[in-house]
Design a protein that fits this description.
The protein is built from eight helices and four strands. Bound molecules: zinc ion (2 copies).
């Protein structure tokens, strides 16, 4: 690590008092951490600060430099602690920043609504179709809710564990997939699933378009053949 690169690094930090946050003045990456140039084997400014202030220390991918101030662009060495991913996520859950249930960015439902949905769904699934259309949710989402795949902390529904793990083959590549719960994924990877779905969707589209294509081809075939006008031949 060269002295001048360290000096230029600190020029991009608004250094303040010992207890203040020192925000990164350069670009931020999408999670709000400072994005620095890759001089110090990291492009995150707070990790770079850790490396600068702990010469000779190497950071592995498992090491997480945590902010005690919860301020991602902060570069004050006094606000940084070294931890693991597990500690970091436990910290996040404790501080109520985990992204599930009402905190999840995709949801429009509240915990109370989810509880109401679970309460009105009959176990034999006889009224699920009605619930789906009245609540404006999808059948797939409801099925996931009722088997404990989502909102588990609100509903208390536990996914059914299989006594014997189920071994099946990936529908796309045929690789063996071990399922430990009944509804676990059937594909070996997300990539396989997405590729397979795309292929199936394309196949369905072709089948839907097939009649139209044959009608068009038949119409073209029944058209009287016209002599192609040749160049150099003038009509009349
Ligand atoms: Zn701070
Ligand atoms: Zn596969």
């Amino acid at each position: 690590m060269r002295e001048d690169s360290v000096a230029s690094f600190w020029e991009t930090v608004a250094r303040g008092g010992r207890d203040e946050c020192w925000p990164w003045l350069g670009a931020l990456q999408k999670k709000g951490y400072g994005a620095c140039t890759d001089l110090l084997e990291t492009s995150l400014s707070h990790r770079a600060v850790w490396l600068i202030t702990h010469p000779g220390v190497k950071l592995t991918r498992a090491d997480v430099v945590r902010h005690t101030c919860d301020n991602p662009p902060c570069c004050n060495p006094a606000h940084l602690r070294l931890g693991t991913y597990l500690e970091n996520s436990q910290d996040m859950v404790q501080k109520g920043r985990s992204r599930n249930g009402e905190n999840h960015y995709l949801t429009t439902l509240t915990a109370a609504e989810v509880r109401a949905i679970v309460a009105e769904c009959k176990p034999d699934k006889s009224n699920w179709g009605e619930v789906v259309s009245r609540r404006g949710i999808t059948r797939h989402w409801l099925a996931r809710l009722m088997r404990g795949a989502i909102w588990r902390h609100v509903t208390g529904i536990k996914p059914v564990k299989l006594e014997e793990p189920l071994v099946s083959n990936c529908p796309r590549c045929g690789k063996e997939v071990v399922r430990r719960t009944l509804h676990a994924k059937a594909y070996c990877s997300q990539n396989c699933q997405q590729v397979h779905w795309k292929q199936r969707a394309a196949q369905q589209r072709r089948q839907q378009e097939a009649p139209a294509v044959t009608v068009l081809q038949a119409a073209r075939r029944s058209e009287p053949k016209q002599a192609a006008p040749r160049e150099g031949r003038v009509a009349g």
